[in-house]
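Batch job 17 of 40 flagged for manual review because the log was empty.
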Amino acid sequence: MPEIVFVGRSNVGKSTLFSELFGVRVRRGKRPGTTIKPNRITFKDLVVTDLPGFGYIAGVSREFNERVKDFVVRYIEENADRIIAAVQVIDAKSFLEIVERWEKRGLIPVDVEMYDFLNEFGFDVLVAANKMDKVKDRDATLNGIVEKLGMHPPWYLWKHVVYPISAKRGEVDNLREGLKKVFVKNKRHDLVPVLKGRQKR
């Protein structure tokens, strides 16, 4: 069964994005960092998995934070043979600030480490730069994001990798098209209809 996984820090909007793309509401914890259990939805023979958010979470033990990260890494390693794409969701508004904070401490930022890890496998990796509606300088922010992820600006040269979106506003059409291309690339045209358009409200 082919699989798409959604990964990212807590509070980056993974669940909202998941719902916008697939038209399905997923379970959310009362507060972030309280569960390691992933959300999994099946469409035909496609498995779509929303993995638990990783990274530092206030009010949660460091041990638990490490357990979540280890779970995500282990899950991807154990299922890499069937994963056809990973969507790494980042908070575009706070990404650069968090990454630079880690770098000043001489540490590898967890978001960068996760991106590099995902690219060790043969599946497609799509970066969903979420919450773009809260970003003041769009191009400067996106240029900074691609640079921190090891790509050379300008960002628009990497439109097949980095997708600026706003899940809360339903502005995810570019990412939807990117996932459709993944299905076509894997000769699974039949899965394209699972990507729903924004529902009228």
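Reviewer: the log was empty due to a logging misconfiguration, but the result itself is present. The chain has a mean pLDDT of 89. Unflagging and moving on to job 18.
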